């Protein structure tokens, strides 16, 4: 299908919460005839004025769209909502943008494809106001032909969307991996901010002086990733035995200042256990063994 033809195809959005509303708006802005449905009536807001058609029930909503987008809470809800429209799903593409675990998403994918529809899962990596931005990321997984067919439409949601796997459970894991890295980083930074505050140093002032050092941390990730993938953790420099005294200093400094030491204490325990396990000369990447344990 040409881009021009795709830009005219019909889209249905089921679920008009904060995210669903933004998604429907992006499809309307992109020129797609858009039908919407929401459990609680009256949530279409400005969408009707922008040209959206409200369907009276899910079956009619599904029947109106070649691309059926679902954005609700919980993947059990996704399947329950689509069940009355099961006979109408054949030949359509369902794009599920509802967060969940990989197993929950795969269960929905199996059910949808059993109804004769193609399935895509999308893991949205932005908040609702970021929908439609050129630099917003959505990780997709599922049917490659469906992704290719709807590529131009999907670009309306975020300029940096990409298909990461044919398995619809994989984008969920990508999202969790990004969020897990984010929370670990933010926890470390907020502990650091509390430590600095105990000395009267504002976090912004710290970043003015040390921002480049903090940003440079991300440049370590490719070499850490390579070590993890190869299971090779030899460290010519910066071995675990060099980390231990520094993290012990951080624990003692935190305690002395009345700053919670649980987070650096956790790191200290991981490093000490790896050293006791015989890995004193290994890189920090060796700690993946701890996280990989059942
Ligand atoms: N908001 C964000 O910034 C953001 C960012 C990334 C991902 N997401 C994901 O996007 C999805 C939607 O989130 P949201 O922020 O739009 O949530 P929300 O504002 O709380 O809206 C929830 C939507 O789900 C519907 N819903 C919930 N339970 C339902 C049920 N049992 N049957 C039918 N409809 C039901 C609600 O319908 P009613 O109006 O009838 O209650 C509403 O349309 C979630 O998976 C969320 O994790 C959101």
In short:
The chain has 294 residues and is an alpha/beta fold. It is 50% helix and 12% strand. The structure holds NADP nicotinamide-adenine-dinucleotide phosphate (NAP).
List the main descriptive attributes of the protein structure presented here:
294 residues; alpha/beta; Rossmann fold; N-(1-d-carboxylethyl)-l-norvaline Dehydrogenase, domain 2; 2 domains; 8-stranded mixed sheet; 8 strands; 50% helix; 12% strand; binds NADP nicotinamide-adenine-dinucleotide phosphate
Walk me through this protein's architecture:
There is one protein chain. 50% of the residues lie in helices and 12% in strands. The protein folds into two domains: 164 residues, Rossmann fold (3-Layer(aba) Sandwich); 94 residues, N-(1-d-carboxylethyl)-l-norvaline Dehydrogenase, domain 2 (Orthogonal Bundle). It has an eight-stranded mixed β-sheet with strand order 3-2-1-4-5-6-7-8, with helices on both faces. It has 294 residues and is α/β, with parallel strands linked by helices. The protein contains twelve helices and eight strands. The protein is elongated and about 65 Å long. It starts with a helix and ends with a helix. The longest helix is centred in the middle third of the chain and has 28 residues. α4 packs parallel to α5 and α10 runs antiparallel to α11. The N terminus is likely disordered. Bound molecules: NADP nicotinamide-adenine-dinucleotide phosphate (NAP).
């Amino acid at each position: 299908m040409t881009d021009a033809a795709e830009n005219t195809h019909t889209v249905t959005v089921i679920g008009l919460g904060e995210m669903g509303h933004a998604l429907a708006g992006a499809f309307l802005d992109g020129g797609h005839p858009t039908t919407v449905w929401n459990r609680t009536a009256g949530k279409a807001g400005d969408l009707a004025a922008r040209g959206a058609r409200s369907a009276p029930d899910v079956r009619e909503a599904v029947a109106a769209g070649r691309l059926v987008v679902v954005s609700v809470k919980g993947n059990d809800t996704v399947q329950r909502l689509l069940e009355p429209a099961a006979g109408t799903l054949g030949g359509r593409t369902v794009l599920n943008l509802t967060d969940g675990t990989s197993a929950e998403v795969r269960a929905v994918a199996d059910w949808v494809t059993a109804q004769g529809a193609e399935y895509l899962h999308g893991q949205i990596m932005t908040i609702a106001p970021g929908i439609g931005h050129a630099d917003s990321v959505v990780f997709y997984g599922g049917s490659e032909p469906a992704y290719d067919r709807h590529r131009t439409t999907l670009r309306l949601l975020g300029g940096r969307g990409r298909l990461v796997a044919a398995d619809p459970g994989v984008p969920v894991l990508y999202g969790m991996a990004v969020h897990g890295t984010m929370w670990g980083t933010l926890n470390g930074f907020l502990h650091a901010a509390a430590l600095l505050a105990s000395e009267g140093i504002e976090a912004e002032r710290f970043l003015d002086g040390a921002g480049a050092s903090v940003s440079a941390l991300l440049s370590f990730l490719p070499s850490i990733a390579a070590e993890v993938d190869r299971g090779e953790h030899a460290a010519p420099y910066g071995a675990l035995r060099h980390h231990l005294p520094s993290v012990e200093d951080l624990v003692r400094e935190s305690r002395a200042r009345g700053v919670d030491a649980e987070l650096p204490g956790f790191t200290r325990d991981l490093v000490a256990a790896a050293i006791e396990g015989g890995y004193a000369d290994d890189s920090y990447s060796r700690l993946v063994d701890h996280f990989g344990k059942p």
